[in-house]
Every structure is written in structure tokens, then in C-alpha cells.
Write a structure and sequence with these properties.
By secondary structure, the protein is α/β, with parallel strands linked by helices. The protein has 9 helices and 8 strands.
């Protein structure tokens, strides 16, 4: 077994060899592991190049796309089939679906859907658009993505953020956004509603932007951030991210 440089969970995989990034894996390093199966997340065109190279070497490569919870659960089931762990995969999916159903039930009586801005990267600003799991996480958490671009990502400037007037602002931290500033350190954004109301939070990139079971954790976490009145033992298995105002 091996992992990419961005993979860090579960903690036990830290001992595994690193084969590069998911976009630019080291082909020789992958071949050295003599894998029975390579899993690749679909992405930009560059992601298809290593897949083609590995297949030319005779490796079995499965490419997956997950931009909704339904697609994510389909991926989990398919990986279960490929690895001979169908029952474990089905149990996992059923548990995740039950948690989302419980979240939907708790949010059913909530009329307010705060307008949310999700920062993927800054200062060369990249925001989460309507496509992709982040948009679905926001929706399932009882929010509304204020960026209406139908693509997965949207490039925009601070003027557009000011015009959008988000009521909540999420700043992901991780490889894509390693050192973002808090909103109170960005003079032009201090006046937006999210900054004025103290509803700007740092969140974990791997939980929100990397497809996997923890995306359900993200939806539960965000639901409490947007709707703190829902707090109770029946809702969350995880705690909300602490407001981090540097």
C-alpha cells in the first residue's frame, strides 16, 4: 500500500510510502509498490495522464468522480466491490446516509438559510461554486452558497465578495490554502456581514474539499455553525470548529 503526499488520515497511514500528489504521482514509485489496484480521483485533464501511463504498464486503475453525496456513496460501494469488502462498504454507506437523514430532519423546521461563501484559496481568490461536494455540504447544512457560478470553482475579486454580502464565510486551511488570513486582517472584507457578525470560520480542507466519509462530518459541523440552536446530542458526532480569529 502507498499514499499521496496529501493523505494523512487515518493516522496509521503515515508509515506508508509516498508516491507524490494525486495529480502528479511518481510513476516509478507507484510501480515499485507492485499494486493490485490503483485508485485515482478524477480531476483536471492532467489527472488522466498518469492514469494512462499506469495502464500502459499493465496496472488496474479505477478512476472515480464524486461531486455529490450520492456519487460519493456510489464510489464507496464500488471500492468495496473492487477490494472484496462489499459488506463493510454497504454498512458504511448506510451509516452515513442515516446521519444525513437525521440532519435533514433536524433542519426541516429551520426557515433561515444563511448565505455562505466558501474560500478555496486566497489571496488569488478561488471560491467554491455550485458544482462539487462543498456546494452540497453547504446545502445539506442548511445554508445557501452565495456564489452562483455553476462550475466547481469560481475566480472572483474582493469587490464581488462585497457585493455578494455573505452572512457566513468559511476559509479552508490545507494544501490548497496553507496560510489564509482571518477576515479581520483583510481591510476590504471587514465590512461584509460575516465579518461584522463574527460568523467567519477556518475549516479543514481535507474534511470539506476531499471526497470521503468525513464530508458528512463537515455537513454536521457546518449545520451547528450556521444553526447553533440545533445543538444537541442527537445531531453531532463531531464538535464544531472553533472560531479562529488571528
Amino acid at each position: 500500500m502507498a499514499r499521496t503526499s496529501a493523505d494523512r488520515l487515518p493516522a496509521g497511514i503515515a508509515r506508508l510510502p509516498v508516491i507524490g500528489t494525486h495529480m502528479r504521482p511518481n510513476i516509478e514509485a507507484v510501480l515499485a509498490q507492485r499494486p493490485d489496484l490503483v485508485l485515482q480521483l478524477a480531476g483536471r485533464k492532467e489527472a488522466s495522464l498518469p492514469v494512462e501511463a499506469l495502464r500502459r504498464h499493465g496496472l488496474r486503475v479505477a478512476v472515480f468522480h464524486a461531486s455529490t453525496f450520492a456519487e460519493l456513496f456510489s464510489v464507496i460501494r464500488r471500492v468495496g466491490v473492487l477490494t472484496g469488502a462489499q459488506d463493510r462498504a454497504e454498512d458504511m454507506v448506510r451509516g452515513l446516509e442515516a446521519r444525513l437523514d437525521a440532519l435533514d430532519a433536524r433542519l426541516a423546521a429551520t426557515a433561515e438559510r444563511p448565505r455562505v461563501f466558501f474560500e478555496v484559496r486566497s489571496p488569488n481568490m478561488l471560491a467554491a461554486g455550485q458544482a462539487g461536494l462543498v456546494g452540497e455540504i453547504i446545502r445539506r447544512a442548511g445554508g445557501e452558497n452565495c456564489v452562483q457560478d455553476r462550475a466547481k470553482f469560481a475566480r472572483l475579486g474582493e469587490e464581488e465578495i462585497i457585493r455578494l454580502e455573505p452572512a457566513a464565510y468559511l476559509i479552508q486551511r490545507g494544501p490548497m490554502n496553507p496560510a489564509p488570513l482571518a477576515l479581520d486582517r483583510r481591510p476590504r472584507l471587514r465590512a461584509i456581514p460575516a465579518a461584522q457578525n463574527g460568523r467567519a470560520w477556518f475549516v479543514d480542507e481535507q474534511k470539506y474539499s476531499r471526497p470521503g466519509p468525513r464530508n458528512v462530518d463537515a455537513a454536521e459541523e457546518l449545520a451547528l455553525l450556521l444553526h447553533p440552536e440545533l445543538k444537541g446530542p442527537a445531531l453531532l458526532q463531531t464538535k464544531p470548529t472553533r472560531k479562529d480569529r488571528k
